[in-house]
């Protein structure tokens, strides 16, 4: 098997795991979403510490972390990224628990186009007319849903914006992706512990000797494993291929929302998704054409 084939398998598996996460969160939706988020941070930290010890990467982790902390701007960027991804995790868990899986799916379809806008404003990147049309189509889809349903899809936009900001903040951080998730969990650990203490003091905690709490213990592995698979895949295949594979996740979410969770898929949703799919197709096609020109 070639390295590119391995990369495709790793990347596809990562997006498939992310795509079926709503099923996992649905299994434990009797637990408060904020408590789930706090435990996700704690068990992700525990899993990453265990993994780094097993892989004998503690020395490398220490060296890279010390190097990072010598650069205040990078440390601040990673701390901010940790807060942003925690917000993204919490919002996604809340959306699943409250029957908004379709809006979550829409958010992750919008995400690549949201990243384009951030690149324009913060990285001073320039885009082709085709890419601008792609952005306009996505914006038209969001506006159409807003005016048709009378409700702005704030869950979708917040999920897309938070993940795009997270990607922007992580863009120039010079540390291995495996170590960043451990540090991000360390940065957000105090907030997680405070949240758990508050929920227990207010008798709102559901974590204890029950099946849901046992299931929640695996949230750390389900957070870290797809990230590791994605990192392994991204190193072996072109960015244009990653761009296509990333739609596996939101597509699986959309299918679950309609066929498993019985969320309504109306004509308004069809028009909205169609506009965004058209924009994504244009954007992805332009990237593939540009990549082929460069390789020639």
TrEMBL record:
It is a multi-pass membrane protein. It is found in: Cell membrane. Its main location: membrane. Residues 6-146 form the EamA domain. It comes from the Bacteria. The chain crosses the membrane at residues 7-25, 37-55, 76-94, 106-123, 130-147, 153-169, 181-201, 213-232, 239-261, 267-286. Keywords: Cell membrane, Membrane, Transmembrane, Transmembrane helix, Transport. The keyword Protease does not apply. GO terms for cellular component: plasma membrane. InterPro entries: EamA_dom, EmrE-like, RarD. Pfam families: EamA (PF00892). Belongs to the EamA transporter family. This is EamA family transporter RarD.
């Amino acid at each position: 098997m070639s390295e590119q084939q391995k990369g495709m398998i790793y990347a596809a598996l990562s997006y498939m795991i992310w795509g079926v996460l709503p099923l996992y969160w649905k299994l434990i939706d009797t637990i408060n979403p904020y408590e789930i988020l706090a435990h996700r941070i704690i068990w992700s930290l525990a899993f990453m510490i265990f993994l780094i010890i097993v892989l004998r990467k503690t020395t490398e982790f220490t060296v890279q972390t010390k190097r990072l902390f010598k650069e205040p701007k990078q440390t601040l960027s990673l701390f901010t990224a940790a807060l942003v991804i925690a917000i993204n995790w919490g919002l996604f868990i809340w959306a699943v628990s409250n029957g908004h899986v379709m809006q979550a799916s829409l958010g992750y379809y919008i995400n690549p186009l949201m990243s384009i806008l951030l690149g324009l404003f913060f990285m001073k990147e320039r885009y082709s007319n085709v890419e601008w049309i792609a952005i306009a189509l996505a914006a038209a889809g969001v506006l159409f849903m807003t005016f048709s349903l009378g409700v702005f899809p704030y869950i979708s936009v917040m999920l897309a914006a938070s993940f795009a900001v997270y990607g922007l903040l992580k863009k120039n951080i010079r540390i291995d992706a495996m170590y960043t998730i451990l540090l991000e969990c360390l940065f957000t650990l105090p907030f997680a512990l405070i949240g758990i203490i508050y929920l227990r003091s207010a008798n709102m905690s559901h974590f204890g000797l029950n099946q849901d709490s046992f299931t929640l213990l695996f949230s750390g592995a389900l957070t870290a494993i797809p990230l590791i698979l994605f990192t392994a895949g991204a190193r072996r295949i072109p960015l244009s291929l990653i761009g296509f594979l990333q739609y596996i996740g939101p597509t699986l979410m959309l299918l679950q929302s309609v066929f498993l969770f019985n969320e309504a898929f109306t004509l308004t949703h069809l028009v909205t998704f169609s506009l965004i799919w058209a924009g994504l197709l244009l954007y992805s096609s332009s990237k593939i054409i540009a990549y082929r020109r460069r390789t020639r």
